[in-house]
Hints:
The longest helix has 19 residues, at 94-112. This protein starts with a helix and ends with a helix. It has a single domain, classed as Endonuclease III, domain 1. The model has no long low-confidence stretch (mean pLDDT 87). It is mainly α. The chain has helices at residues 2-17, 21-24, 33-46, 52-67, 70-75, 78-87, 94-112, 117-123, 127-135.
Amino acid sequence: MAAEHGKDIARRVITEAGGTMAREAGIRLRDRPAPLWQLLVLANLASARISVGIAAAGARELNGAGGSTPDGMSALTWQQRVDALGRGSYVRYDESTATRLGDCADLARERYGGDLRRLAEEAQGRRTHLAEALRESRG
Length: 139
């Protein structure tokens, strides 16, 4: 019953706010590896001094270019990541972000087999452990 009440509150907040950053970035939330990776990329882009719209556009472009998973992001060259960010008008921090996203993808692949849900499993429900693990990804 309490969980249903929480869902009602979440729906009202989203309705009043007009949507979510994930929706604006074209991320369909599901319990699968790709959407979680895409959220990490979006959070990384949005952490810069840049508008949410530009961060979402950059994320959409990266996903469309093939960077929708850690394997896909690693397969993109640095220049392909820069170009995708540029198409999303994410130009002020495009080069450093392209480098950072490549590093994040490599970490996600090496440490979690490309599935960030393993990060949560490893943290065993402890927020401090989860926060520490997330900080290992630059950005």
